[in-house]
Design goal:
Helix content: 40-55%
Largest sheet: 5 strands, mixed
Radius of gyration: 36 Å
Number of strands: 8
Shape: rod-shaped
Strand content: 15-25%
Distance between the termini: 22 Å
Order of helices and strands: HEEHEEEHEHEEH
Low-confidence stretches: none
Structural class: alpha+beta
Length: 234
């Protein structure tokens, strides 16, 4: 191989080596991103498997079966219909919490007596505000609240004994199966993607070693040609 051809080959191999290293860096970065996703998925999975929640129970044959998350309707529904026959008040405004203004208004009440909160029908929002003490239970139904002075209201927090007859604070197992299935699906996809990237990286490493070996060989040829040229003109 002549000097010119050797130099051209050297430049081409150097470019291939740089491209090879660039691809390897990208693959390494992708694997790091996948690993970070796994950490996030694992955290979500652990949170789903260990989340505390307020479950509502209905009395059956003298026992209470807590089998569903507490809803606003469970609180205000009459006991004869399986509810608590209670209401909520806002701890800051001392107004009755409702998703919409009652129609008709209870006797002696005006719109100003109510705290309008459409989000109270959302179980997550309801639980958050109960836990933070923003909402309190009142042992009156809507009609009785309308006829009773605020000073006579008996209020309870979500964890008071009188409320624990209907509500238990426990781990929510209702979403465990879905959380497990999602985590297993994500893990399987990660393992498949990471294995593919690992194979691509090994292929690039093999190519990188071959390129370096050839670069060394071409460098020796160039060195030999240079030494021969100096001998010719020496």
């Amino acid at each position: 191989m002549g000097m010119s051809a050797s130099q051209s080959r050297f430049l081409m191999l150097t470019a291939q080596k740089s491209n090879n290293e660039y691809q390897a860096q990208n693959i390494t970065f992708e694997r790091m991103m996948l690993a970070e996703n796994v950490e996030r998925w694992t955290e979500e999975y652990n949170n789903d498997m260990q989340n505390q929640t307020l479950l509502f129970g209905q009395a059956n044959n003298g026992s209470v079966n807590f089998n569903s998350r507490l809803r606003y309707d469970d609180i205000v529904r009459d006991t004869e219909e399986g509810g608590m026959s209670m209401s909520l008040i806002s701890a800051t405004s001392n107004r009755i919490v409702v998703p919409a203004i009652p129609d008709p208004l209870p006797e002696g009440k005006t719109r100003d007596d109510y705290f309008i909160c459409p989000d109270v029908n959302d179980v997550d929002f309801l639980e958050k505000n109960l836990r933070e003490g923003n909402f309190l239970f009142v042992d009156k139904n809507t009609t009785m609240i309308g006829m009773t002075d605020k000073s006579e209201w008996n209020t309870f927090a979500y964890n008071d004994f009188a409320i624990q007859t209907y509500i238990t604070d426990t781990y929510d197992k209702t979403d465990d199966a879905a959380a497990q299935a999602l985590y297993d699906e994500r893990t399987a996809k990660f393992q498949k993607a990471d294995k593919l990237l690992e194979c691509q990286l090994k292929k690039l490493e093999t190519e990188h070693n071959a390129i370096e070996t050839e670069i060394e060989s071409v460098q020796k040829v160039i060195k030999t040609n240079v030494e021969a040229s100096f001998k010719t003109f020496g």
